Structure formats: C-alpha cells, structure tokens
Task: structure prediction
Amino acid sequence: MNLSYKKYGEGQPLLIFHGLFGSGDNWTTHAKNWSNAGYSVYCIDQRNHGHSEHDQVMTYEAMAEDAIEFIAEHQLRDILLLGHSMGGKTVLHLAEQIPILISKMIVVDMGIKAYPPHHGAVFEALNNLSVESLKSRGEAEVHMKKSSLDSATQLFLLKNLYWKSPEQLAWRFNLPVLQEQINNILKGFDGKITDIETLFIKGGYSNYILQDDLPEIKKSINFVEFRTLDHSGHWPHAEEPQLFYETVLDFISN
Result:
C-alpha cells in the first residue's frame, strides 16, 4: 500500500507513526524542529488515515507491512522510529520484523498489552455527526459540542474533516472500517525485541501505561527506558511540547 507522507530535513531518518484518528500532520511542528536538529523526519499517514489509501484490513501486521514497503521504497536504514498510541504498536511490530534496519525506537503513551474497548463515546459522536449534510465546519463544531467528548478531543477529531467536493464535507479517516476493526487495533504486542534501544514516554495523567505493566514490557524488550511527563495525559507531545521535544532529542542523539 502506498502511504502518504511529508518529509522534513536531511540526515538520519526518523519515521513518525500517528495514533488512531490522527495523521502525520499532527506532528508537523515537532518534525520541523527535529529536522532542524539534523534528522530526516517522515510524517506518515497510516492506512485508513490522512491521505493514505483506505482498505478493509486494519491489523498491525498489515500496518507493519505497509511500513516495510515504505522503508524499502525509500531505501532507508539506521532508522529511528516513533509511534504514538496505535502508532506505538505499529512500530513495535515493525521493529520485530526488521530489527537490523532499526537504530532506536520511541513508544509514546502506549503499552504492549491488549486494551478493553474504550472508544464508544468517540464512535458515537462521529456517527451522530452527519457530515454529508453539513454546510460548514462551524456547523460541525456546533454539533460536536453536543457530544460527551472533551473539547480537546472534539478539535482533534474535527481536524480530519475536509471538503470532498465544493459542497460536501467528509472524514479523511475510514470511519466504518475503524469501527469494525477496533478490536484488532486494541490487540496487544506479544513479540520479542532484543537489540533495539527503546524509550517509552508516558503521560503522567494517562492510564495507558501503569506501573504494573512495566515487568511485561521489560520481558518483551531487552533494552528499555521509561520517562513520564508529569503534566500531560495521552498526548504528551501536544500537552508538554518542549519537554517532549527535548526528551526525544536527548534519547535519539546520545
């Protein structure tokens, strides 16, 4: 599958994989900053997200295969990987498949365990928003405010709206497939990564990685570090951007 992407800078390749309902554009500011520090940063849209192709299959095996094809096409090696949430599981599966090409890896606020269903409110809000009948983005915002979602999540989701035609809005992500395949997205990682230095960054207010999860992570990854950004939740890159930028740069440069 051809993955849409944007590239910033020249140097050692750093591949960024976004989370569920996101896109590579969510990472533009960080990508530009890391490119200024001497890296080639690729902000990648995963399948069924952003400008990449839609498909009925939404598994980590498929997403990892997409990434392997991308790496082969661009002839990359000595690669740095960064994945947030769903993207964190993607980079774990990818690194297990092609460890010889991976230098270091950062997993942002995502554990290796399987998660119970917890996106019901998001799918409800998205399904209640009849995008085909909307006349403006402002109208979409008004309707979204009626949902139970917090304002930050509402804005995050609304970034995915685009004008499919001069008169019709649509979602960039493949909502029906994401909803149908959500159990695949919530699956755990049960592989083994032996030689890749890995940093897990956790949001201090987030419950995606608990203290009890650390022993299992250490069993699956030989060289692993943990860092908590105390004043952020599930999006530490957005909630504590400067500290997040510095934490990643320190890890990949040393």
User: Anything to note?
Assistant: Residues 120-180 form one domain.
